[in-house]
Amino acid sequence: MATAENDSGARGFTGKRVLVTGGSRGIGAAIVRQFLDAGAEVLTTARSKTSAVPEGAAFVEADVRTRTGVKAVAEAAQEALGGVDILVNNAGGARPFRNAWDIPDEEWQDQLDLNYLASVRLDALLTPEMRERRSGAVVHVSTVAVPTSAPAFLHYTAAKAALQNYSRGLALELAPFGVRVNAVSPGRTTTPGGKATRKQWASLAEGPSQDDTSPPLGRDGRPDDIADAVLFLVSDRASWLTGRNLAVDGGEFPVG
Ligand SMILES: NC(=O)c1ccc[n+]([C@@H]2O[C@H](COP(=O)([O-])OP(=O)(O)OC[C@H]3O[C@@H](n4cnc5c(N)ncnc54)[C@H](OP(=O)(O)O)[C@@H]3O)[C@@H](O)[C@H]2O)c1
């Protein structure tokens, strides 16, 4: 029978140094908890600490939309972990508008900073050491909504589309050094951020809700569904897998 102990042994995370952004709730908190259960040392970050940050994880308060915030996270990783073997860029989120033309310029910048450039900047600080060591793994958390380009979320999906494109390019660049880079694209997942965003969207939408159908597998995602995919992608079981974007969405969309 699989137990947390023998499963984590098989996954081989004991002693691995892991940085997960956005681990104070939702998907990030599930990723942090799964890594801790699997024996890893984990640092996580958010703008403020909540009781949902799993016990046992080191925490640094930072806003990853800014260069200063990203630098503070990288420094904290050096201090708390002595380096990073596995980097999960998970912090992100969306704020819907009624139409794409209602999205103000500063919101476009904000979404690019949060959902795209935060990852680019953190990777730039942490992957050189992985390259030198010739080992490491990076995951970028995107969204399965990229191909839909819904006007209410165009700033968000455009930023996540850039993230997917960049993730693939970084994977190609780092592959010769034994560093793997992949993306995970969640479908509709029950998290505090996801619920708040869908509530905002529903209050903006005219006519029937655009968000009332179940994915083919009959339920919305749970944070652990996404965490399972992240842990797989950075594990040795995925050692011949790089540059990919794994949709975890209950079969919601034909592409991912
Ligand atoms: N839930 C879904 O249905 C869904 C679907 C597709 C993709 N995703 C993606 O999955 C990831 C996690 O989403 P979630 O649903 O778990 O969201 P969530 O419940 O809102 O959690 C987001 C986490 O990111 C942190 N964060 C947000 N802005 C930040 C900032 N500027 N600096 C540092 N940390 C920040 C939050 O903490 P603070 O707010 O305290 O900073 C929190 O820890 C995101 O990238 C999201 O785009 C989610």
Characterize the structure shown.
The protein has 256 residues and is of the alpha/beta class. The protein has one domain: 3-Layer(aba) Sandwich (Rossmann fold), CATH 3.40.50. Helices cover 43% and strands 14% of the residues. It has 7 helices and 7 strands. It has helices at 4-11, 26-37, 67-81, 105-133, 154-174, 192-204, 223-234; strands at 17-21, 41-46, 58-61, 86-89, 136-141, 179-186, 245-248. The chain has a 7-stranded parallel beta sheet, with helices on both faces. Helix 3 (67-81) packs parallel to helix 4 (105-133). The longest helix is centred in the middle third of the chain and has 29 residues, at 105-133. The site of NADP nicotinamide-adenine-dinucleotide phosphate (NAP) has 28 residues, from helix 2, strand 2 and helix 6. GO terms for molecular function: oxidoreductase activity. It comes from Saccharomonospora cyanea NA-134. Keywords: Oxidoreductase. InterPro entries: KR_dom (IPR057326), NAD(P)-bd_dom_sf (IPR036291), SDR_fam (IPR002347). This is Short-chain alcohol dehydrogenase like protein.
